[in-house]
Amino acid sequence: MRILHVCPYFKPSWEGGGPPRFVYELALQQVAMGHDVTVYTTDGFKRRVRAPKNTMVDVDGIKTYYFRNLSMYLTANFNIPLPYYLPVVALKQIGSFDIIHIHEHRTFLAAVTSLLATRHNIPYVVQPHGSAPRMVKGWQKRLFDTLIGNRIIYNAKRIIASSRIESQYYKRVYPDLDDEMIVRVPNPVNIPEIPPRGSFRRKWGLEENRIILYLGRIHERKGLNLLIRAFNQIRDDKLKLVIAGPDDHYLKRLKKLISDLGLEESIILTGPLYGFDKFEALVDADVFILPSNEYESFGMAAAEAIACGTPVVVTSNCGISEWIDSKSGLIVQADEKKLKNAIMKILDNGSFHPRTPRVFEIERIARKFDEIYNEATS
């Protein structure tokens, strides 16, 4: 099958969050299964990718087009990728694909490829990756949907959700969407090599400490204020809170809260961690926390923590909560007292023994997408 993935950012633009990693892992597995896979993307999010632009590049067997963004200022500051050369290539190639998989649909890439797909009668599926709700950038999203977003969604053969929570939001934003069009597929967890324990602790001088870890974007809706206040209630000089991730317009306020509570010596801000560095942190943590106080479509880092053998605490706002079993961690409401109690329960209880659920295996997920694509093309 000739598959086209359309996504704003791709390897190595990991700062773009979960979607670039998802698309890469899925495309890589599809190539291994014998599919002919192409990716249309842009040349970077926070910085330009060092690769040939506007032409095909082989990325681990994946035919990849890094279309040059018109403005990196718009991309880096407002997440508005404008790959001006995309239509030139898409006009020539769209008709040759069997299926198109659009990731994050409110983009110039999605608009161009969906219109061309409809013109050439090529079926496509859409996977918003948590971006469908309008709590953030509400008027911009409504405007885009009025102009073309509604057409992109309603003309799709299938809409992919990573959790029940995410699928419920689809119907709120797009009320005419048929329930049968929505398919739930969890995000894959594929860690090529689990690091040995101790490396992260040695790097940060934490050999004698117990570690609470948050890993993700530093954003207001991630509930980091709740986590810090919950941590402040735990009186343990050996306990350290590590917050790792890129700033998403919230770091300044976070540092002020830490300072106001006098926690500068107990909280470590590492900045972004990617690849092996990220997994070293996940392996060495005693408990991983995802304290989101608003909608979180999935929660990839929590799934990766479980795969690394680290128990997790996630709030009920997180889509991954439906995939977590009692051996892997606890699910609580977004409340500082409940977070504190859950953290203490895991730290003081040795009965948590996480292991990766089979539903997260990339092979199973790729086979599920084969079924979805076959249904869409039949």
Automatic annotation (TrEMBL):
GO terms for molecular function: glycosyltransferase activity. Residues 200-350 form the Glycosyl transferase family domain. It comes from the Archaea. Transmembrane segments: none annotated. SUPFAM superfamilies: UDP-Glycosyltransferase/glycogen phosphorylase. Residues 17-190 form the Glycosyltransferase subfamily 4-like N-terminal domain. InterPro entries: Glyco_trans_1, Glyco_trans_4-like_N. It holds the Pfam family Glycos_transf_1. PANTHER family: GLYCOSYLTRANSFERASE (PTHR12526). This is LPS biosynthesis protein. It comes from Methanothermobacter tenebrarum.
